[in-house]
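assembly run, all chains below
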Amino acid sequence: MAKSRVLLVEDDESLGSQVLGHLRDAGYEADWIRDGSEALGLDPARYDLWILDLMLPGTYGLDVLKHLRASSDVPVLVLSAQDDTRVKVRALQLGGDDYLTKPFWPEELVARVQARIRRPNAVQEGRIQVGGLLLELDARRLTVDGLEAELTRVEFDLLAALARRSGSALARADLAESVLDPAREGTERTLDVHISRLRKKLGPYAGCVATVWGVGYRFDRGAAD
Amino acid sequence: MGRWLSLRSGGGGLSLRVKLLLAVTAVAVPVLVVLLWARRSLEYRAEVESLHRFILGRMEDGRWACEESPETFPAPPRPRRADGPREGPESGGRGGPPTRGEPDRRKPGGREERGPRTDGAPRGPGPASPGRGGPPIDLFAYAPDFRSANPAAPPFPGELKDELLAGADRADQRLVDGDRRGIRVAARMAWDEGPCVFVVATRRGEGPGWLTPNQLLAAAAQALALALVACVAAGPIVARVRRLQGEVRRAAHDGYATSVTVAGNDELAQLAREFNEAGAEVRRQFRAVEEREETLRSFVANTTHDVMIPMTVLQGHLAALRDSEGAPDPALLHDAMAEVQYMTSLLRNLAASAKLEAQEHELERDPVELNPLVERVVARHAPIGRQKGIELNHAVPELALRAAGDLTLLEQAASNLVHNAVRYGVAGGHVAVLLAADSADWSLRVIDDGPGIEPELMRRLTQRAARGHEARSRHPEGQGLGLHIAREVARRHGGELLLRRSEHGGLEAELRGPLA
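ok done. output:
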């Protein structure tokens, strides 16, 4: 898989070099330009994500964003030094995808970048495949290491809901509401029972359905590897 | 008057008394002129009436005499003396028939005496000029063609003729021709044939209805007297204004700490009262400004203090890290990071606090996407949580939730709840952040299994309307400022902050507000 390319537009030398280091450490191919007007001449499509500081010399960051949005919908993460609602709201209105207020932790930055250029889930034509797990949404069929597993309706729906948003935790209440029929399968309290039955049927991939403290459950792709 | 003039309203103004004097004069003179004019008009009308009656009275008896010998009328019909009738024109020079037998009262030009008659003239001039020995009256009769048979008669006055032709029974005019001033009345008789259909009576001289120099002088004297009286009467008012002026100056000098004397209930007292009220308002605003300044001063002092402590701790940690050999102590690293996080949070809260106080009434209302907001807040605290060994989980619904409000404030409120949970959690602990829709509200719950807070403190944190500067000390209520701001932000967005003991033994803080 080719490295994602990130463009950093930041005028501050120390902050710029630091951010650049973090991005490269995180496995991104990163370029850095210091002047906003320089950014106006770049081909936006060369990058998978832009990190744009709003306070740039020469040109205002929002102008760069406006210019960029006229021709491209590449994700833009805005860096803002000021805790100014107006500027942030304006940045989002102009098509900024997210923003990060200084100061921020390097991990925080990387997490925001990852969230923006995360590869689309392996949901293709109704199929989710993780290791030896194959979930066919339309056929409502689960295959574990080549063997079809017998899932109840609730178990299948639970797994499908979690797998569709793999990596994100789903709240118990949300899961119960979208999956359980209160008249037949009870409420939130019976969720754990369904989950533990589901895990048993997942066999070696039981760890893919992780319990998240205080929240609910999450489908972890990593646990399948 | 010098003292009076000293009461000026700034440079070059007139004193109150001078203004009063001028005002009284300006009012009194026209009023007096109007009064004089009215009086003159009334007198003139009365004189016209009188002359008219005189004519009617004279002609009632004198018609036959007139028609019999119009060329000599108004000579007496039956002259007392034989030489009478022809005497007038020759002796008078000014024409006009002799009218009376009494030589001493007879005037040239056919004059008639007015007033009591001795020649048996049937009627006096009438009640309009009772007993007044006025100047003599000329009387001439005219035919319907306005010609007089009497050669002494002057031509019929044109304006009067027009009026009579227009149908009037009577016409009058004022004669203003130099020394020949007087009043003239022309009357139509009850008959319309013969040489005596129209009769013109003229009284010469400054009769009633004329303004004399004496009258004008008297009027001027009256106006002057009035002005002086007004001037004197203004004395007490001027004195009170001067006193008020002095008191106002003193009050302004001592910062409106003293009030001015309010005596009575008139306009001046009202002015004094209103000045006192204005002074009280000025004092109130002074106090507010001073309070604000004091708040700002202590705010800056406390902030400096609050930032200096973590700075010092951070310096110590950095020094220790510099001196440590081999791998840095994770606990030390965590502490250093926590101090930085604390400082950041503190400064953001101070900014939020300032914003909340500045925008007491008006809050920015933009659509705020809550799902990414929660993710930003969690991402901000994940590094410190990881460092501390605290599991920080979160979930947002698949549906995008949106609030209307101030993005920065809402994010700071959420951040405060998460920051507190992470900051006061212990290694191995958990924090869960849950965003959910709850009917028409959004709900952000931050649940931890940390030490929680005492019920008493929880109640105080929830109930106390703590001011920012009261709630911001690090210990023992370090959560104060953050929770205070979270609650205030929720309130200003039409929501609330709820604190309760979590089912895991720690604290559960819930921020709620209406969905956009």
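The mean pLDDT of chain B is 78.

Chain B touches chain A at residues 337, 340, 344, 348, 351-352, 364, 366, 369, 372, 375-376, 379-380, 382-384, 386, 391, 393-398, 406-409, 430-432, 434, 436, 447-449, 504 (CB under 8 Å).

not gonna interpret more than that til we talk
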